[in-house]
Amino acid sequence: MLQLSCSLVKLLTVLLQSSLVNCLMSFKGNQNLSQKRYCSMIDRFGHFKIWHAGGSLLVAISFSSVFGGCLPCSLLHSNSLTVETFSYSMFAAIFNIGWAATQVSHMAMVNCITLNSTSRVALTSSRNAFSMVANLGLYAIALVVFGVSKADTKENTEIQYRWIAYSSITVGCCFVVIFLMGTKEPRLRINLRETSRRRIPWAYWFRKILYYQVAMVYLLTRLVLNVSQAYLAFFVIDDLQMAQSAKALVPAIIYICSFVVSVMLQEIPWNGKRLKAYYCAGGIIWIFCGVSILLLPRGISSFMYAISVFIGIANALILVTAISMQSVLVGSELGGCAFVCGSLSFLDKMSCGIALYILQSHQSNSTSPQVDVNIKQSFYFSVTRYGLGLVPAVCSFIGVVVTYFMELDSTILKPLCQPLLLE
């Protein structure tokens, strides 16, 4: 049954890899433009929950339409490839618009709930922990669907993935409703400085050196996570030739370890010095993981399970601290928090799209001659190995260097020593 659940991961990753060259840049560009617009509009008009609800609704509609088939084709009674291409492109664009509104409003809301640095990191850690729970939840849904229904034909396979998509959308919508009903809209208290209430112009952030440093660290962190995630399943199966179940076990181990570390990070009093230290620790762990992946031969491929443990730990450390650095950058200037989150997300999506495009463009010539090592096993220097090992290791190294030269506040504040900015 576990092997059956792995086919979900395989399909999603194959779809990702096969469509990168032709579609990735256009879709990323659409999402980047949406994110750039929304970061300004959210700062201008506020009401994070409204933006989050609207974005979630667009995501649900577009995602269900993509997996539900070509809606314009059914309405026009046409099987034209042009109409089908237009349909999927339109819903992909709608998805990107909705996701931009959802992501930026949710990330900005963290900074507007509290000014306390420790509380902000705790919220970010909680956010990352439940992201891992969502990833594991998808595996659970797939396992149930694959166990209940059998895929003997192509049509049955499509029905399986349609049920997985609809089930995920339903569960996600339920949690969105819980979030919207159970969370108060952040409002600035009267006793805060007037400068923190007004909208901050974009040029203000561009004059701060810390903005560029945080942007670089966040961009590199997202490169590490997204590029490694894109090539993980291909490396496990194609390069290491592990069992099919490894496609599910290795990511699951990473998610579980990230969840545990994210929960533990919530219990630590935070300041700028500790953010730098923990980010550097995560970056160094990723460097060793990247080197290990580059040199890992097929004969001892089982060591990938151990490496995945450290990857999960490193992912949580660098992601939580990198996002928390945004909170340090924003400080009490809450009028520009959505712009900071949106602009940095704009940079990370552009960089990830370009990086994956370059790697995919060399995929056909990825395999070099076989190399023998002392233990009489072999491995290949492929694009997949570079994408999972070399790129994250180099990005982690640069991120550690940039973080080391940052100047962040070293004052440790106790959680909730400052009031929550809620009504």
UniProtKB/TrEMBL annotation:
GO cellular component: plasma membrane
Keywords for the protein's UniProt record, in alphabetical order: Membrane, Signal, Transmembrane, Transmembrane helix
Sequence similarity: Belongs to the major facilitator superfamily.
UniProt KW Repeat keyword: no
GO-annotated molecular function: symporter activity
Signal peptide per UniProt: 1-23
Protein name: Major facilitator superfamily domain-containing protein 12
